[in-house]
Amino acid sequence: MKSYRQEKSARIALAIGASAIALGIGAPAFAQDEGADTASAPGNNVIIVTAQFREQNIQDTPLAITAITADAIEAKSQTNLAQVADTAPNVAIRPQGASFGPSVTASIRGVGQNDFNPAYEPGVGIYIDDVYYPQLTGAIFDLLDVERVEILRGPQGTLTGRNSAGGAIKFYSKKPNGDGSGFLEASYGSRDRISLRGAADFGITDTLAMRVSGVFKEQDGYVDRIDYGCENPTSGIPATTSGNCVLSKLGGVGYEALRGILAWTPTDRIDLTISADYVKDERTIAGEVLLRTGPVWNPSTAVNGVTLSDDFVCGKYCNYSTTGQPGVTADFIFAPGSVLEPTSGTDRSEYKGWGVSANLSIELADWIQLTSITGYREFDTEFYTDDDLTPINTNFGRNFLANESFSQELRLNMEPADGVNITLGGYYFEQDSVYDSFQDIRYVPVFPLQFRQPDPTSADAYALFGNLSWELTDALTLNAGLRYTDESKQQTYYRYNLDGVTINPWLDLIGAVYGEGYSGPDTLDVNGNGDTTDIVTALSGLTAKYSADRLDYRVALDYRWSDSFLTYVSVATGFKGGGSNPRPFNPGQVISFQPEKVTAYEIGFKSDFANNRVRLNAAAFLNDYTDLQVPVLACPDSPCAARLNAGDVEVYGFELELTAEPVDGFNLDASLSYIDQSIDADSLDPSAAVPPFGNNPAGVDPGDPPNVPKWKFNVGAQYRAELGNGAGTITPRLDLYHQAKQYSGPDTSGATRGRTFLPSFTTLNGRITWSNADEDLDISLEVTNITDEYYYLSRFNLLGAGAGFDKALPARPREWAVSVKKRF
Question: What is the 3-state secondary structure (H, E, C) of 785-817?
Fold first, then answer.
């Protein structure tokens, strides 16, 4: 039997060998003649992207990239980032449950993040007009007046401003041209859905133009929050209301956004674009449902003798969550006779954010161009959560997160000779965050049970990068890039009582755990590289620091066999930054983790055939990870939510994308992806072990990468039919989406190692649009989730941490809407 290293070497050799064959064999039979005119042929679907710092046809870029145009977004009834990600292979963007506020889980090819805490790096870069958005909070962006969305898969350190190990998602807004155009759109649908969109483009002078766009969306929620005592009057749980037992509808929509873009072109060599945007997302919290319950570590969470049990599993679209916990005097583990204050909040979530950016392009000479991209963003959010979704008093939290970030990128694009493009650049990024929360966590065996933690986190990064595109021959092109990154991050921990007084009884806890006389370690080595910071036995005031520097590269060769067929092979490196546990209960839980590093091998082809009526693109990849970062639910002495470096893992898979126009007016699009992983068991660090898994830390699954399904496909079809006699056109469309089961984390609640999955699902969406003969008026009927499929978007299992719950966020049921859009 081959060893892990032998298997890895064989896979790499296979990828390189297959690439060499692809670059050395003649063109396939379906390739077009060299002289084919791709711009004017039937079925023309040229999409221009800027993935390699310059405008290129997507079919000329030697990397896996999905580009979705504004027309395609509208045809598929897509309105936000998560819906667009569904159509891209091996990409998963999902909204999180209420415990994580208005945030998302983002993953590309198995690399990403599911925790919104600013102490962690996202792993997937999100950009708005080339300005990096640094957090998962607030990242379910509305597709307000976008020109296109580009989704780049694989490490992008040499091709984007911020290092992104998994890939990058880029939004590009429609730029003003001063032509006086615009549109207005109004929609009404299920559960009083109201949506208004609009944009106006106008010229101010011959060289100055402006575009203003806005969106307003409102809709009632789809998950009932029910008063358990009201619905079950003999249960022993007191009621908080009478009459209608439904307290509110969770999962609502309340979104407003406004954007203004100013474009100034004083000469044909200078182009300045300044943009500003504002977003307000205020609604009820995500509508989660309880799946099952388990033992609670602290038994004093019972209410009138009623303990957490499956009796509180409500149903498909309901829960029994509350908006606070009463004050009590009870005997908790490590805290006998504790007097706990009442805590309260709401079932609402609010996010407010704004940003400004400036993109300046100066053509210094015919062959050299200077680009400056400056961005500033700021947001704050507030949300409340009753994690167990029951009236049992296990935990309740009030969460406040504020973030501000600044970035500056300079690029020098040069074409010193025909077929040679060189980009040299520098990048600077900094952000400051404060995650300030009030926690009333009564299930944990720690003290204190109630505290405030206003933890500030700051981060900065510097980078120098260069990229070369060199046409070695008319058909063979070399792309090569280097990037040097120096980054640092630090988080300071503060713990206060709810009245704001500094907590100082941590020595009591440490003495109870480690024995009397324990004074704690003298130093804390967060990086594991010999750099230390002072540590005190009290957690409050402790600062954990992380820093790293790294040199990454990318090399790609592409060969164009004809105007319609290109093959490529590439190897690239990247990393996701390290740090320390952002939620420790004591100094011993300030657990460090190192950067997660990846070397990615990719081979692919891009093709157009059948007289440009069919486009088929494919890619296969092998990502070789070292020091993979994984979440754990147990730390020394008590539950926690930390990260550990698990060891070495290979992630591999393939992707197919197809678009076709078999006959005029009939369009098809489809994608298929597969992903798997293999773990080097010998590389797992026994010192990072978390019981009961031996030397395998919680969170490492042998065959399922987290947060992305193994198999995923979608198929869409539409036909534009002429009605004749000036009656316009009618276009029906159907979109089918399937996702296999998805690994979402470990299940540490039993005696043996288990796994938590999101079940597989299949959905069907439909839309029919009538357009008038002048094509300036559309009336559309859309139905999403036509079959009313019941499935989950995310899952949060804390049974193994003694919290007693396993819950999930169900997707929206079948919904309909009617829209009217007028262009002018």
Answer: CCCCCCCEEEEEECHHHCCCEEEEEECCCCEEE
DSSP codes joined into one string, 671-686? EEEEEEEEE-GGGS-G
Residues composing the chain: 824
Distance from C-alpha of 519 to C-alpha of 525, rounded to nearest angstrom: 17
pLDDT at 141 over 60: yes
Query: CA 763 to CA 793: how far, in whole Å?
Result: 13
DSSP 702: S
pLDDT tens readout for residues 514-559: 333 334 333 333 333 444 333 334 677 788 888 999 999 999 999 9
Q: How far apart are CA 249 and CA 756, in angstroms?
A: 27
C-alpha 190/C-alpha 385 separation (Å) is 26
Residues 498, 451: contact at Cβ < 8 Å?
yes
In this structure, which amino acid lies at residue 76? Answer: K
437 phi/psi in degrees, rounded to 5: -135, 150
Cross-strand bridge partners of residue 617: 606, 657
* Cα dist from 485 to 34, 164, 503, 574, whole Å: 42, 11, 38, 10
CA–CA separation, 440 and 395 (whole Å) = 5
Number of CB atoms found within 10 A of residue 48's CB: 12
Taking CA atoms, 117 is separated from 103, 401, 436, 456, 576, in Å, by 10, 9, 11, 11, 15
Please report which confidence band the pLDDT of residue 750 belongs to, taking 50, 70 and 90 as the band edges. Answer: low
In this structure, are residues 510 and 187 in contact, taking their beta carbons and an 8 Å threshold?
Answer: no
CB 708 within 8 A of CB 105: no
- Strand pairing class (223-226; 318-319): parallel
Quick one: average pLDDT of 661-665?
95
Contact between residue 138 and residue 379 where contact means Cβ atoms under 8 Å apart? yes
CA separation for the pair 783, 734 (Å, rounded):
10
| Contact between 574 and 165 (Cβ < 8 Å) | yes
Cα separation of 784 and 735, whole Å?
9
Identify whether the C-beta of residue 469 lies closer than 8 Å to the C-beta of residue 420: yes
- What predicted TM-score, i.e. pTM, was given to this entire model? 0.86
Q: What share of the chain is helix, strand, coil (3-state, %, to 5)?
A: 10, 55, 35
Structure tokens at 222: 């789809």
Q: Give residue 101's region: left, alpha or beta (phi > 0; psi -120 to 50).
A: left
Tell me the percentage of the chain whose pLDDT exceeds 90: 57
Q: Cα dihedral sign for 658, 663, 665, 666? A: negative
3-state secondary structure of 212: strand
Q: What is the pLDDT of residues 572-619, one digit of tens each?
A: 999 988 888 888 877 777 877 889 899 999 999 999 999 999 999 999
d(CA 397, CA 444): 14
* Bridging pattern class, strands 270-284 and 253-267: antiparallel
Tokens, residue 385 = 């959560």
**Strands 649-660 and 666-679: what pairing?**
antiparallel
Could you report how far apart the first and last alpha carbons of the chain are, in Å? 68
Contact of 665 with 597, CB cutoff 8 Å: no
- What's the CA gap between 734 and 716, in Å, rounded? 6
Q: 3-state DSSP call for residue 47? A: coil
DSSP 668: E
On whether the CB atoms of residues 573 and 553 are closer than 8 A, the answer is yes
Per the listing, tokens 């161009």 go with 369
In angstroms and rounded to an integer, the radius of gyration of the C-alpha atoms of the chain is: 27
Q: Which two tokens stand for residue 104?
A: 């998302």
Burial class from Cβ neighbours inside 10 Å (0-12, 13-18, 19+) for residue 13 reads exposed
pLDDT in the model for residue 637: 57
Name the residue with tokens 């570590």.
297
User: Which residues neighbour 353 within 8 Å (Cβ) at sequence distance 6 or greater?
Assistant: 138, 278, 279, 377, 378, 379, 380
